[in-house]
Amino acid sequence: MGSQPAVPHTGLRPHASPAPSIEIEGGTTFHFIDASPAEALQTAREAAGGQDVRIGGGPTIVRDFLAAGLVDYMHTAVVPILLGRGVRLWDGLEGIEKDYQVEATSSPSGVTHVMFTRTTT
Length: 121
Hints:
This protein is 17% helix and 26% strand. By secondary structure, the protein is α+β, with helices and mostly antiparallel strands. A 3-stranded mixed sheet has the order 1-3-2. A hairpin with a 5-residue loop joins strand 2 (22-23) and strand 3. The longest helix has 12 residues, at 37-48. It is globular and about 35 Å long. Mean pLDDT is 79; it is low at 1-7 and 10-15.
């Protein structure tokens, strides 16, 4: 494996105390803050110095950023496994498809890749 690019990352931990920063091989550092999605995005934009900002996390983080209208592009991998528990990604986001061009591609393994690209600003 090659080295990881040195890109600043900011993680959001809602309703939790900030965690210590994590540095991985190649110089990439993940910083965790306790902030609203808009505040976390602003902090990440400042750290990125004009480069793109990527948001990573589970369904709660993704849903919070989508609900706040802060996502321009999203790639979601839908895996056909029924677990019967967990957090539902789309709850409370009814009508969100009106703001995005949605493209889906299925793979032979059964995973469906769904890409959302913002159509309005």
